[in-house]
TrEMBL record:
Keywords, comma-separated and alphabetical: Transcription, Transcription regulation
Coiled-coil intervals: none
Organism of this sequence: Streptomyces dengpaensis
PANTHER family per the UniProt record, alphabetical: ARAC-FAMILY TRANSCRIPTIONAL REGULATOR, HTH-TYPE TRANSCRIPTIONAL REGULATOR RV1931C
PROSITE patterns membership: HTH_ARAC_FAMILY_2
Alphabetized CDD domains for the sequence: GATase1_AraC_1
Claim: Aminoacyl-tRNA synthetase is one of the keywords in the record: no
Highest taxon above the source species: Bacteria
Name the UniProt record assigns to this protein: GlxA family transcriptional regulator
Residue span(s) of domain HTH araC/xylS-type: 212-310
Pfam family, one: DJ-1_PfpI
InterPro entries, alphabetized: Class_I_gatase-like, DJ-1/PfpI, Homeodomain-like_sf, HTH_AraC, INH-QAR
Length: 317
């Protein structure tokens, strides 16, 4: 039996706690004896979450046995970490077979020195702070979770569920993880390297209606003529004015936005359909498989066929 220990503290984010716990509880129902889930706070006293919910831990951290999987959630309580908690993590974290953080729980792991020399992520809003305060940590702000050896870190809130499902799949197999995902009505298909934001969310929404309409049109027509000249005509602006206004209002150039939309569209088709590579390259606006391959290798480090092999669910043939 694998002991899963979730650390509790005042002002913890409740969903960071309950999301992964529900996944592991579902795994225990799927295969009895798989996991034993425990919660613990520094002194064993109840804690109040950032949303006002009170959680009663099973015991004090000083009394818990060494867990197989140690989960450190995030929340407002990580902004000024209790030195006793980081000291406990520094002493006991390395003993766990798997060390996991959810959201800003990565800040606690970093404060304990447990992320030094490792690649990690956290909620997008705190990636800069994590990198600034802990330069020994290689912070990657894009993925929803990062696995570096026995240490795994996840982005904001619901990504803790994605990471927990990945860990269950590693332990019990894909059928178990898929059953749990269906029960929780969540996707099992979100791989760790999926971006925290879609292209539309990564860019700011333009203030002017013609530019907003262009943003939406790009998303709906990745295969279309998305040159600056064509998009500028759609917005009824000169190409120079359009390019300048688009970057000012969205925070990225039209070309960069188009690249992200096309890559996102191609990834979705590779994961969710059995369409051929050539068909997907045309539908995503790359024109040729070679053009799509170059974009995938540059951004994701894997060719489309390899990406599909890794991340397409087994039931899609």
């Amino acid at each position: 039996m694998r002991i899963v220990l979730v650390v509790l503290f005042d002002d913890v984010q409740s969903l960071d706690v309950t999301g992964p716990m529900e996944v592991f509880a579902g795994a225990e129902l799927y295969r009895e004896g798989s996991y034993r889930i425990r919660t613990a706070s520094l002194d064993g006293a109840p804690v109040r979450t950032s949303s006002g919910l009170t959680l009663v831990p099973d015991q004090a951290l000083a009394d818990v046995p060494t867990p197989h999987t140690l989960i450190v959630p995030g929340g407002r309580g990580t902004r000024a970490p209790d030195l006793r908690l980081t000291a406990w993590l520094r002493a006991h974290g390395p003993r766990a077979e798997r060390l996991v953080s959810v959201c800003t729980g990565a800040i606690l792991l970093a404060a304990a020195g447990l992320l030094d020399g490792r690649r990690a992520t956290t909620h997008w809003a705190y990636c800069d702070k994590l990198a600034r305060d802990h330069p020994a940590v290689e912070v990657d702000p894009d993925p929803i979770y990062v696995r570096d050896g026995e240490v795994s870190t996840s982005a904001g809130v619901t990504s803790g569920i994605d990471l927990a499902l990945a860990l269950v799949e590693e332990d019990l197999g894909r059928a178990a993880a898929l059953t749990i995902a269906r029960h929780l009505v969540v996707f099992l298909r979100r791989p760790g390297n999926q971006a925290q934001f879609s292209a539309q969310l990564a860019a700011q929404t333009a203030q002017r209606e013609p530019l907003r309409e262009v943003q939406q049109w790009i998303t709906e027509h990745p295969e279309g003529d998305l040159s600056v000249e064509s998009l500028a005509a759609r917005a009824r602006l000169s190409p120079r004015h359009f390019a300048r206004a688009f970057q000012t209002e969205t925070g990225m150039t039209p070309g960069r936005y188009v690249e992200r939309v096309r890559l996102e569209h191609a990834r979705r088709l590779l994961e969710d359909t059995a369409d051929g590579i050539e068909e997907i390259s045309r539908a995503s606006g790359y024109g040729t498989p070679e053009g799509m391959r170059r974009a995938f290798v540059k951004t994701l480090g894997a060719a489309p066929a390899e990406y599909r092999r890794r991340f397409r669910p087994a039931h899609i043939n």
